[in-house]
Structure formats: C-alpha cells, structure tokens
Amino acid sequence: AQTIAPDSEGAIDGHLREAGLTFHLLKDVPGIVSKNIDKALVEAFQPLNISDYNSIFWIAHPGGPAILDQVEQKLALKPEKMKATRDVLSEY
User: Fold this and answer.
1) Is the pTM of this model over 0.70?
2) Rounded to an integer, what distance in angstroms lies between the CA atom of residue 10 and that of residue 14?
3) Which residues form the domain of 78?
4) Which of 4, 28, 32, 78 is the most exposed place for a label (fewest CB within 10 A)?
5) Residue % of the chain over a pLDDT of 70
6) What's the CATH number where 18 sits?
7) pLDDT by residue (tens digit) across 35-61?
8) Which long-range contacts (CB under 8 A, 24 or more apart) does 46-53 make?
9) Are 60 and 85 in contact, with CB atoms under 8 Å apart?
10) Is 41 part of a structural domain of the chain?
C-alpha cells in the first residue's frame, strides 16, 4: 500500500552530491507522520486483518528520534516494538 500525506510536498528533500545522498527534513515531518500513519497502516494491514500493531514485528526507517517517538505514541506501541529501529539509529 502507498499513502501520500496531505501537505507533505517538500517535507523531505533529497539531493545526490559527490559525497552521496543528502536529505533535509522539514521540522514538521514528525507531525506529518503522526497525522497520517493511521490511514497508511489501515490501507496496508486491513486486507490482512491486522489491527493490533503490537502483534507484528516492527522495523521503521529511522528518520530521527522525533519521528520514531511519534509513531510509537500514535500507535500505542510497546517500547520493545521499536527497539531494533532505535538500535540501528543509534549505531548509524
């Protein structure tokens, strides 16, 4: 499933440079994620009859601690559900 969040144009801006890919995230990306994650997950998991997000394994692209905090809070995830993601974020 794929969801385009309203008012998200330019929220994440990437550029290919000699040093590699660089990204700039607007300050409100965590808020945009928080406001739209429910819709995105319902579209992805409803066909599989999954509505308890603590019943599945989680690995999220760690855009930063604020984004992970918003996902965890909005979905009422148990802290251990985001442990692997937070470990990757802290190491890289």
Assistant:
1) yes
2) 9
3) 12-91
4) 4
5) 99
6) 3.40.47.10
7) 999 999 999 999 999 999 999 988 887
8) 53/77, 53/81
9) yes
10) yes
What are the pLDDT digits (tens) for 75-84? 999 999 999 9
Query: Residue 50 corresponds to which amino acid?
Result: I
- Report DSSP state, residue 19: T
Which residue's entry shows tokens 């819709």? 39
Measure the CA–CA gap between 37 and 42, rounded to whole angstroms.
8
Contact 62, 68 (CB under 8 A): yes
Residue 1, domain member (yes or no): no
Residue 52 inside a domain? The answer is yes
Q: In sequence order, which residues have a C-beta less than 8 Å from that of residue 21 and are 6 or more positions away?
A: 14, 15
* C-beta separation of 88 from 62 below 8 A: yes
Q: Decide: helix, strand or coil at residue 83.
A: helix
Residue 4: strand, helix, or coil: coil
